[in-house]
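One record is given unchanged without comment:
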Amino acid sequence: MVGLSAGEKHFIQGGIAQDLRLDGRKRLTYQPIYVETGIIPQGRGSDELLTELSVALERCLLGGAGIDPTSLVVVEGKVCWDIYVDGLVISSDGNLLDALAAAIKAALRNTGIPKVDVAAEMAGDEQPEVNISDEEFLQFDTSGIPVIVTLKRVGKCYIVDATVEEESQMSSVVSISVNRKGHVCGLTKWGGWGGAGLDPCIILDMISVAKHVSEQLINKLDSETAAAEATEEE
């Protein structure tokens, strides 16, 4: 927790109430988003994310349409692709969950699945022979993968992409995943702030705000990812 004086706390809370944050952003404005693709061609394991963060990602990202599981099937009931996502956090100044979800969405869009040719199926329970191509790849349809919008309540206002200083003043936190169609795919309420549960009316209000913000976030993420892919191909 960041140590702030009473004056600093009052200044942060007052600015948020006036829709003007310390870095000049409005309450529902994210910091600039930049995407680079093709930096790490293949992941081979890393330190596990904190359990709470990992569970929140699963709950928010796997609750909607996401990736069609059938697109990972090579031979039904026998062979399929597994997807492992390693998240490497270099530094954190708040809003880690939203950033990881955006990175996962961009990474999967840039991921190719090698084309697989299946030889004649073997009899019984024997595994079929497969030939994995080194040159031909198929891409995921990631259009259904949601983004995560974490809303943090400071006073009577909600903010997104909170800094560490702003997080020290929040009374409640809700992470909501929303896909391109505006469907809510998952919701996580983080404990440890305020103690008491949130009024259902506040939850519904936060969902409405998250839907509005998610549209802008998805469009920005798509444009940045497309630009990064174009640069990679040059």
In short: Residues 52 and 184 are 20 Å apart (CA to CA). The two ends are 44 Å apart (CA to CA). Confidence is low (pLDDT under 50) at residues 43-49.
